[in-house]
């Protein structure tokens, strides 16, 4: 049977693939020639309707090893939220605010996943990766990975012409350093309000996890196959970092400049939650940053909507929104 990328991506979009292999990355990668797509949960990918004419590899490794102290070595194939649940169950703090993010451990450092005032970079010590340039396994430290807001050397490389939709390095395992504590910090106003603690205060990590999952569900940001608002690649655009925010825009100062709410820009530009151009693709009814498939949607429709939003925001605010997902066989 022909495997289609629509079967393995959360947008449920994408045409046929030439070859699909599932197994241990370390065994498979040395033998691959030609174009490569290493796939985790397919939750940050927009794949072309024409499909992918290379090899798609999915990692079957699922080990979590204790390295001593509060360090863990986690295989790339482990489901991200399973590891978050594992850490919270053992009173290990650090990942609780990242509960409910879809995908795999191996993809987490690629765009330095983040939510509710936390990002994964704070807990990653190093990764073991297959370097496709020299065909060897290498160790990259947190500093080597250059993780920033939804970015790292891995993501930059996955966007380069040279390497295709999977970059030069394929992560085999990630080393995390967590903190032995049943309590964690709450750094995001909406979450703090829900937990009834001040921003910067502490709460039990099990309560933080429950509150984050509740907030995420209310926005359609926890995968649910019966809920079309979750048939997305998460946020389609990142929050732009600018030197001057438009009047009235929710914005806050970061090291790199002023980060402006992309959701606000999109809504102000005339694209409310639920916006549709008449086809099978629409903005989520609960989250204006998520472009969703209502069933039978195509990559072509997603790109059309994304282009329209991007050009209108640029026209009104002179800000060019940057897409968050990785494109496979298509471009914005
Ligand atoms: C409903 C929903 C909510 C989301 N919420 C958030 C959120 O709050 N915060 C956030 O940051 N993201 C969010 N996302 C985006 C997405 O979940 C993350 O980016 C996630 O880390 C992607 O993991 P994945 O395994 O699905 O990666 P995939 O989509 O399978 O792959 C994405 C990219 O990573 C590469 N990749 C995958 N595995 C490896 C590996 N082992 N080594 C090297 N490269 C690899 C792929 O080749 C591809 O380039 C959301 C997505 C959805 C659908």
TrEMBL record:
The active site is at 150, 235 (proton donor), 324. Residues 12-181 form the FAD-binding PCMH-type domain. PANTHER family: UDP-N-ACETYLENOLPYRUVOYLGLUCOSAMINE REDUCTASE (PTHR21071). Cell wall formation. This is UDP-N-acetylenolpyruvoylglucosamine reductase. PROSITE patterns: FAD_PCMH (PS51387). One of its GO terms (molecular function) is FAD binding. The lineage of its organism: Bacteria, Bacillati, Actinomycetota, Actinomycetes, Actinomycetales. It is an enzyme of class 1 (oxidoreductase). Its cofactor is FAD. SUPFAM superfamilies: FAD-binding/transporter-associated domain-like, Uridine diphospho-N-Acetylenolpyruvylglucosamine reductase, MurB, C-terminal domain. It is found in: Cytoplasm. One of its GO terms (biological process) is cell wall organization. It catalyses: UDP-N-acetyl-alpha-D-muramate + NADP(+) = UDP-N-acetyl-3-O-(1-carboxyvinyl)-alpha-D-glucosamine + NADPH + H(+). Belongs to the MurB family. Keywords: Cell cycle, Cell division, Cell shape, Cell wall biogenesis/degradation, Cytoplasm, FAD, Flavoprotein, NADP, Oxidoreductase, Peptidoglycan synthesis. Its EC number is 1.3.1.98. Pathway: Cell wall biogenesis; peptidoglycan biosynthesis. The gene is murB. GO terms for cellular component: cytosol.
